[in-house]
Amino acid sequence: MHVGLFIPCYVNQFYPQAAIASLQLLRKLGVKVTFPPKQTCCGQPMANSGFEHLTQECNDLFLQNFSRFDYIVAPSASCVLHVKQHLHSTVDPALAEGVRSKVYELVEFLTDVLNVENLNARFPYKVGIHQSCHGLRGLGLAQMSELNAPSFSKPVQLLNMVEGLELVSLDRPDECCGFGGTFCVAEEAVSVKMGKDRITDHTKNGAEYITSVDLSCLMHLEGIIQRKKNAVKVVHIAEILNSTW
């Protein structure tokens, strides 16, 4: 299989180490990976702000960059969900539909396509998982706690393969962090309070690191952590799964 590595713009600019970890991890697992260098924003910020009608050039460029691959994989649940639900073409709707069906979030790809059962990874720390809303409720990466249904979690499934890692239990395992894209700008006070609550839940339960499938959530939490001079750190799940500490 040939995978196109989709790296969202904010990951490229602020967390390139997560992009590198994603690339290295996929190659370790025997996947042929290509990073299209001309890729840019998928258009999610504009669409979230009510300007989806201005995203067609983003859609066209995404199709140019990624339509040739067997799969498209990204370390960002929110951007993957946006592409899955909103990528369209005024010239070739069938092409856009086909590409939407090939886009996967990294954890989803590892569990559902590669069926990974073993990882040569080590991360000897106590880790709390932040279930991002887009990953949890949009992509179905884990079971929502309010449902009376069998529990599952694809991130937990993979993290349980990491030597030395201890997962901590949270009081509210799938609470929103308050980021919400443009919500954190429009409703700053509410957003920050929600972020503080998520950090407190992790720290009171002993987490040394907070991980997630969404770096946008981690970016929001990291900003609050730095302002409060909290000792807990954030790390994208790809960095843990690729770690050999």
Question: If you had to describe this structure to a student in words, what would you say it looks like?
Answer:
The protein is of the alpha/beta class. The protein folds into two domains: 2-112, no CATH class; 126-241, Rossmann fold, CATH 3.40.50. Helix content is 46%, strand content 11%. It contains 13 helices and eight strands. It has helices spanning 9-14, 16-28, 44-48, 56-66, 77-86, 93-100, 106-112, 133-138, 154-159, 183-186, 188-204, 215-228, 237-241; strands at 2-5, 32-34, 71-74, 103-105, 126-129, 166-167, 209-212, 233-236. It has a four-stranded parallel sheet with strand order 2-1-3-4, with helices on both faces. α12 links the parallel β7 (209-212) and β8 (233-236). The chain is globular, with a radius of gyration of 18 Å. It starts with a strand and ends with a helix. The relative contact order is 0.15. The model has no long low-confidence stretch (mean pLDDT 94).
Q: What's the helix and strand layout?
A:
Blueprint (H helix, E strand, L loop, with lengths): L1 E4 L3 H6 L1 H13 L3 E3 L9 H5 L7 H11 L4 E4 L2 H10 L6 H8 L2 E3 H7 L13 E4 L3 H6 L15 H6 L6 E2 L15 H4 L1 H17 L4 E4 L2 H14 L4 E4 H5 L4
Parallel strand pairs: 1-2, 1-3, 3-4, 5-6, 5-7, 7-8
Helix pairs in contact: 11-12
Strand order of the largest sheet: 2-1-3-4
String of helices and strands: EHHEHHEHHEHEHHEHHEHEH
What is the architecture of the largest domain at the second tier of CATH?
3-Layer(aba) Sandwich
Strand content: 5-15%
Number of strands: 8
Poorly predicted runs are: none
Task: Give me the number of helical elements.
Answer: 13
For this structure, the CATH topology of the largest domain is Rossmann fold
The class by helix and strand makeup works out as: alpha/beta
**CATH class of the largest domain, anyone?**
Alpha Beta
How many separate domains make up the residues? 2
Share in helix: 40-55%
Biggest pleated sheet: 4 strands, parallel
Distance between the first and last residues' Cα: 29 Å
Protein name: L-lactate dehydrogenase complex protein LldE
Pfam family, one: CCG
Organism: Spirosoma fluviale
GO molecular function: oxidoreductase activity
